[in-house]
Fold each of these.
Amino acid sequence: MTTTARNIGTLIVVILKARNLPNKRQFGKQDPYCSVALNGETRKTKIIKRGGQHPEWDEEVRFNIYEDPDALSSSGGGTPPPLPPKGGRGPKKILGGERMAVACFAADKDPDLIGEATVDLTEVLTKGETDEWFTLTNKDKYSGEVYLELTFWSNEPRPEKKSTPRLVKANKQYGGPGTFVPSDDSPNHLQQGSGSFHEEYRRESLPSAFLPSNSSTGLDLYKPEYEHTVKARAPRSSSVDQVVNDMGD
């Protein structure tokens, strides 16, 4: 019984450049290009005329990624499939396997293979992106390197973030300087006559010397020190008054 493969995302491959490629021409510079193959599909870059040993392509190719529907039923011997990763993350079993083939050729009547490599897609399918130099070989010999940027766009919905409740601080009402009266427990006589209450509170908080003598509280007016001194002394008559008194006698 076969089932339809489900499209799980898109793999974007950016073929940037290569370095240290062997020159396949005896005279002049070679015309290199690069090919990428995955799940039976092949994508090619443009040919760089006289690109030589250090060509730069900077081209992007894309592959549709399909989940392998027979991945869970392929385990033989009665062995149960492995448990899925926590949080739903981790590489999925895809059609064609998690490996991609990359190769560089020198363009000619018959393209000449420069070097090839196999790219493991496990990291990009797990993390979402990766980029590095991949070593090319030809007949088990070093044949340069190619630089690839890999990005995987998943069709799966993003997991919802759990919102943590924030603690709400209690709203306290400011009741004036030096006092605090909660809004629910405030007495009636404080709420109704707030003006006279604050005025009386100010009078009580002041020293007695600073209150007027004719106030309703009956306290003495502030009297400076020099007034007490002047009143304590005997009144002196001026020189004019003394002359008038002598003439009257």
Amino acid sequence: MPPSEIPLRRPKSPAKLVQNRPDFSKTQASRPPFEEYSFKYTQPNSPHWTVGSGANSDGWKKHETIHIDPHAADRTPLDNYRLLVSGIIPRPIGVISTQGLDGQRNLAPFSYLQIVNHDPPIFTIGFTMGLGSLKDTPRHILETKECTINVISEHFVEAANYTSVDAPAGLSEWDLSGLTPGESCVVTPPRVSEAVFSVEGRLVHHHDWFSPRTGENTGLLAIVEGVYFHVRADALNEDRNAIDASVLKPVSRLGGITYARSITGYEILRPSYGRDKGKEEFRKAVEEQNGAWYGKDEGHCGSNL
């Protein structure tokens, strides 16, 4: 397509508006190289923790708590965006594949993604507006009620990241990223063949979000039911009910343009009232808390907005 015929670029999302990293290649070159790893287990931070012990250290007492009203007059939506994406971490990332009624395919990564139920399998996906317009991914989902969710792994994170490019309409993120479309079983949008774990989904419900200040439509929540799963054979156990993290090697999102790895893990048993109620530390914790005031943080909501 000649340059004169390429449409104007799509509006940018808040995430792209905050990205300003001059000489980033120099910064990247100064860091140690990427290291392969095998997922391993360690002990938890406090393996001998007992009922009523609280936090593992008192370091938190040395710091003031800042109380923030998200709708304060001197605060912008971008302030809230930056705070939330750097505080709600790590976030799982899915590359969402969709196909519009016109046959146009779209591929883009989203970290406002979570599983919220398993029977039926239900996922939530959050979409922010690109300067007031609906992005291709949510528009396609609303049109066709279909998508695939593809969990990002380390072996294709760069390609997955490139699907967020602000390319002109008509250019394929599949082609630009080099990722491979794989045939889905019950929905039209293809899955990402490189993904260790993919989910075919159908829209159950959606909800629009509006700014309390301006009344503008600022986002959309899609509730999607998983209707078919795809798992790479070497990652799946014999019972077909668990995925090996050392094979999945999931990539999560932190704040800004920072991604994170899942390198180590530790196991902590769930508490049991029946098992613990007879313990001396359990009875002591209950006795100490009876009649106690639980709001011991002396900060005041409004004292340091």
Amino acid sequence: MTDDCNMYVQTVDSNVNFSTAVTDVIGALQNILRSQATIADLGNSTATIPSRNHALFTLKGRSLNAILTERQQQLDTLKTVMESIQNIHGQLVEEQDKVIESINLHERLGSSALWRLPTEILSHIFVYCLPEDEYLSPASRLAPILLTRICRRWREVVVGMPRLWCSLRLEVQHDDWQQRAFCYEAWLKRTLGQPLSLALHFYALQELSIVGHTAAIAQPISQLPSTLTSLKFPGMWWFDLELLASFAPVWAQLTEVEIYVDKQDAFIRLLQLCPNLSSLKTGIVVSQVQPLEPFTHPTLESLHVCGRAWIFGNPLSGVFNTLSLPNLRVLDSSSLENLNFGAVAITTEEQRAEYVALMPFLKVVVDPDLV
């Protein structure tokens, strides 16, 4: 079927060339017919032969040599036009044979049982047309994209089958990123929201921001190239020790991280996993008392505490008392609007004053029944 489509395209292109050639030939013929020159009628011409010199032989005031030269030019032109017509005739015969072959092919296809198959059976066949690769790369000569180029009905069936589009190998290069992005967008739309198996191949990725269900992509993220230096999880997805471990060893190469951690020990563990970290934006949930070992992070320069810090029993300052940051230059807590002490939290005014001194923009909220 693809060959037939190619043959049709070639026929259309050839017809354009033939039209141009025929137009040229007709134009040449019209020029000849419009010529002001007339062929001399020797029987009715008045000829004078003053001497044997052929060059002096004249017909109606014109020399014979001039007439012969003109006639020879006309003859040459006619021969050229006739040869062109013969060539065009031969090519037209060939194109006629191709058109007849195409008609016969379409008639055979129209009578074939393949075109009368129900959509359900056709869909089942299309699944077996997919490459055997675990992850599919968009390619015009491979299914499923190839199947969309056969005919309108096949395209409608293929585009409406999410199963054919739920596997993708995504490769990112700087030279053709926009073209690939357009292709990937069209591919992903055809998944119709179904679960997607995705393989990521980045050649010079430096920054990555992930929104969504983080645990589902931990394995491919852990295999990102060593060029990655910035990793952000802007959604409120809380990392515990297990989830942090699932992203190893990518942490070791990062210099900038945005992340929310579930407990104090997860916060300390994050710093241990990121020895090259220089900038950290985080939110911390302090839900229970945890013994913490002292830890020094020598490279962290900027710490941004955001969101809400929830404290139930153990002051947040315990984290900072355990942690030593000799290279810290920026401590930003302007986004930390509230510090809530739960019912079991016992804090004195002096302890609360320590929080305010540490983070001037902090609003401390205390249950008045506990004061």
